[in-house]
Amino acid sequence: MWIDIYLGLPELIIYDAGLQFTAVEFSESTRQVGTRTKCVPVKAYYSIGIIERYYEPLRRAYEIITKEYLRLSKDHIL
Questions:
Q1: Whether the Cβ atoms of residue 31 and residue 9 lie closer than 8 Å to each other
Q2: Which one of 4, 47, 54, 60 has the minimum C-beta count within 10 Å?
Q3: Which helix (H) or strand (E) holds 74?
Q4: In Å, what is the CA distance from 66 to each residue of 1, 3, 11, 19, 25?
Q5: CA gap 64, 58 in Å, rounded
Q6: Which secondary structure element, helix H or strand E, spans residue 14, and what is its range?
Q7: CB count, 10 Å around CB of 2?
Q8: How many CB atoms lie within 10 A of CB 15?
Q9: Strand 12-15 to strand 36-39: parallel, antiparallel, or no bridges (unpaired)?
Q10: pLDDT tens digits, 19-67
Q11: Residues 35, 51: Cα–Cα separation, whole Å
Q12: Any alpha helices (H) in 3-73, and if so which ranges?
């Protein structure tokens, strides 16, 4: 079971060289909300996987803490 939690806007978005991320609208939108962007070079596509591999353990830890400590606020859990 996945629980989506809104934690606000990201400070940094790391993306590959896909067309949707190189569009002017994307760069303007991220600039307007104060989010930095970093494009991963085509030859270094594997570096996005390095970041993604940490999502699952962090999400699992968050779920466990949330279930065991019902009185903690979300800020304290994070």
A1: no
A2: 4
A3: helix 74-77
A4: 14, 11, 24, 38, 37
A5: 10
A6: strand 12-15
A7: 6
A8: 15
A9: parallel
A10: 777 788 888 888 898 888 888 766 655 666 666 677 778 788 888 888 8
A11: 18
A12: 19-22, 24-33, 46-52, 55-68
What H or E segment, with its residue span, contains residue 12? strand 12-15
Classify each residue of 18-41 as buried b or exposed e, where b means 16 or more C-beta atoms within 10 Å of its C-beta. eeebeeeebeeebeeeeeeeeebe
Task: Kindly list the domain boundaries of the chain, sorted by start residue.
Answer: 9-44, 53-78
Encoded tokens for 31: 């600039």
The pTM score is 0.45
Token code pair at residue 12 = 């940094």
Residue tagged 């466990």 (tokens): 64
Query: CA–CA separation, 60 vs 42, rounded Å?
Result: 31
